[in-house]
Every structure is written in C-alpha cells, then in structure tokens.
Design brief:
Layout (H helix, E strand, L loop, with lengths): L13 E6 L7 H17 L3 E7 L13 H14 L3 E4 L5 H11 L2 E3 L1 H12 L3 H15 L8 H7 L17 H28 L4 E7 L5 H9 L16 E7 L2 E7 L9 H6 L1 H8 L3 E7 L5 H14 L7 E6 L1 H13 L9 H5 L2 H5 L3 E3 L8 H19 L9
Parallel strand pairs: 1-2, 1-3, 3-4, 5-7, 5-8, 8-9, 9-10
Antiparallel strand pairs: 6-7
Length: 399
C-alpha cells in the first residue's frame, strides 16, 4: 500500500532505580538522592518506572540488595518488561554478573550511568578520548561479555555507547591495547594544551566550578557574551571552554569546566586530566552554588572535597550563590502556606555563616541578570589584585 506510514522513532528505554541507604540516612535524603539518579536517567533518555529502596547496614556482597527485595525487583522487571535496572552505587564485577543472571536485563551502576552521559555530551576530540579511556578503565575488570546479547536485541541504547557493544570489544588484550592507545593520544593532546596554556601564562586565569546544573554556563555567557551551551540537564558541559575577558582594561581568561557531583567516578577524575588542569592552573575560582537547592550546603562540600582531590582547594575563591529568583519564589510559597520553618529571606542568607565564611560571597540570578554588576566588580577586584601583583609596574599609583 502506497503512502503507508512507518514509525522509525526508537522506543524510549525504561528503567527502575535501586538504592540501599544506611539506616541513619533520612527518608527525605534518600528521596533526594533518588531524584538526582532519576535526573541522570532522564539525561540519557530513559524513563524511570519505579524506585526500590532497602535499608541495610551495608549492601549485600552478592546482589547489592537482600534476597526478598531482589525477588520483588525481578517480578516487577518481568511484569513490566523493564529494559534496565540502575543502582545508586558502584557495583563490583561479581555483583553485576549475579544481578544480570537473576534479572536478565542491563545492570547499570552509578559510575556507568555518569560515564554514559559524558559519552553523550563530549564534543571535542580530547573530551571524547577522555570519556572513552574512562569507559575502558571501567570495563576492564568487568569483562564478562557484558550485555552483548542485549546489545544485539536492542541495537544500542543506554550504556551501549562505545565500549561494550560487541563481543570482540570485551577481550582483555584488545581493551588493554585500547587503553594504551588512548593514553598515547591524550598525551599528545596534553602537549598541545600545555603549549596553549604556556602561551597565555602571563594572563590571569579564572575558572567556573560547581556542582552540576548550577548555572555555570549561563554565567559564562552573561560575563563573556559567548555562546556556551547551557541546558537544564546534568553535565550539559563536558568540554572546558575558555574565553578572554577585559574589565577596566584588565585582561583575564575565564573557563567553564565540567560540573562535579557526589560519588563522581574516580575513573573520570583520572581521565579528565586535561580538562581539570584548567582548574589546577587557575589563579582564581568562581564557585557557583544553586542556592535554591535544598542540599546546596552539601553540594558546596562535594565541590570542596573534589577540589581537594585535584589539589586546588587552596586557591582564592569567590562564592557565587546563583538562582536567587527560585529561592525567593520558594520562600514566598512557604510564607503563603504559613510555614513556621520557612526559608530565611535573602538578607538573612547574606548575613549567614556561609556568606561570612567566604569573602566575597555574591548573590545573583543569572537567568534574571540580577546583581551581575556586583559579581563583575568582585571579579574585577580579585583579578586586579592578582594582575598587579604579577605586573607591579602597571599598577595605578593609588593601588
């Protein structure tokens, strides 16, 4: 029959989420962590159907969850023909094998999910090589012909980008060769990037850092009038973007870097050396915080811990509390509901211990362009100080 329509769109994959929180962890915190895992799942294009939670002293060594909970998950997965089960922790190779045997679907842990997002987001040759290296490092101890039968059935999908697609790719010798080649390729990229950084060694360098999805790219666009990709999804930026800025005749470089997240895979930190070098070699950090997020204080801690891991915690920092517009909307809603534990108003927040611990601390809304002038001035003050220490002969008389 002519003019017959054929549906060619790929059917959206489905997932269930599984978490084993510690007994002391509150239900509210567990929900928040699973919300983040659901957001990660959505970012790779899959749909979450259900969440399973089991409180244990520690995850089961064999199957992560206990026998009864596993039977519950198996029944749901078979009834609803779920494509994958995603765990909010890293799984051991033996746990993956045991869970695949029981569930007969793709088993994805937190690290693999984040790696898959990075594979989806990487644009430059350097970023793609870094992600691929992290994938192979993740894959090497887990070589069990992972999901090859599922790959043939599904034709790709979540966690099927790059490594793991065909049986030959699961051969240990080939994977080790791939790792060696990628390391050599990244060494060449590193030499090129080093030469680029050396050519701009005299200029002050500033990096935007923060938890993922806090608005770094939007701030980058505002400050530099650049066209950096910004989206309300986790890890919208994977590649480091560097732009030159001049404020009051003071030149400096501003870099937008990959967002951090709790339980950031160690393999990614190891592989993203070139990108993280932008942070390591910066003179000043703009630590951007989503003040409207209920756990923004925890996010500050995650970023600070990651900065320690990459030996960058001792740098001068401007703390930028972003999304004050959303924060104020939440406060207004709570006051309407006559909530006695309503959020403090913005002035109370400015005088809080967090703001006092960081000097300067700036409160802005990048979306509404609120208080951007104060941010520019704080940035100018800090950059000028570094610039004139480096070039004292250029300093104005009164400086």
């Amino acid at each position: 029959m002519k003019n017959q329509l054929h549906i060619t769109a790929k059917e959206q994959e489905t997932a269930v989420l599984v978490a084993v929180p510690a007994y002391k962890q509150t239900d509210e915190k567990t929900k928040e962590y699973l919300d983040e895992l659901a957001f990660l799942t959505e970012t790779v294009g899959a749909k979450t159907l259900k969440r399973f939670v089991q409180k244990l002293d520690k995850p089961d060594m064999r199957t992560y969850v206990g026998k009864g909970k596993l039977e519950e998950i198996v029944a749901y997965v078979k009834e609803h023909k779920v494509d994958m089960v995603i765990f909010d922790d890293d799984l051991s190779p033996s746990q993956v094998r045991n869970l695949e045997r029981e569930l007969e679907v793709k088993i994805i842990d937190r690290s693999l999910l984040i790696l898959d997002i990075f594979a989806l987001r990487a644009q430059t040759a350097t970023a793609r090589a870094q992600v691929e290296l992290a994938q192979y490092r993740y894959l090497l101890p887990r070589l069990t012909n992972m999901w090859t039968h599922l790959s043939r059935q599904k034709g790709g999908g979540v966690a099927m980008r790059g490594p793991g697609e065909t049986e030959i790719e699961t051969d240990r010798r080939i994977v080790r060769e791939k790792i060696t080649l990628l390391n050599e390729k990244l060494e060449k990229f590193e030499k090129q990037n080093f030469e680029q950084r050396k050519s701009r060694s005299g200029i002050v360098r500033v990096s935007l850092v923060g938890y993922t999805n806090v608005g770094k790219s939007t701030i980058m666009n505002l400050l530099t009038k650049a066209d950096v990709f910004a989206e309300n999804k986790l890890f919208a930026t994977v590649d480091a973007t560097v732009r030159k800025m001049v404020i009051d005749n003071i030149p400096f470089l501003l870099s937008d870097t990959v967002g951090f997240i709790r339980k950031l895979p160690t393999k990614l930190i190891e592989s993203f050396k070139t990108t993280l070098d932008e942070i390591r070699e910066s003179d000043l950090l703009l630590h951007v915080v989503d003040v409207s997020h209920a756990s923004f204080e925890e996010h500050i801690g995650v970023v600070n811990d990651t900065l320690k891991d990459i030996h960058s915690a001792d740098k001068p920092i401007i703390l930028v509390f972003n999304k004050t517009d959303l924060y104020l909307e939440q406060r207004e809603q709570e006051l309407k509901e006559d909530n006695p534990e309503a959020l403090p108003d913005i002035n109370e927040l400015k005088s809080s211990y967090m703001a006092k611990q960081h000097n300067p601390a700036i409160f802005i809304s990048a979306t509404n362009r609120a208080n951007i002038d104060e941010l520019r001035q704080a940035l100018l003050d800090q950059v000028s100080k570094i610039h004139y220490e480096r070039y004292p002969n250029n300093a104005p008389q009164e400086y």
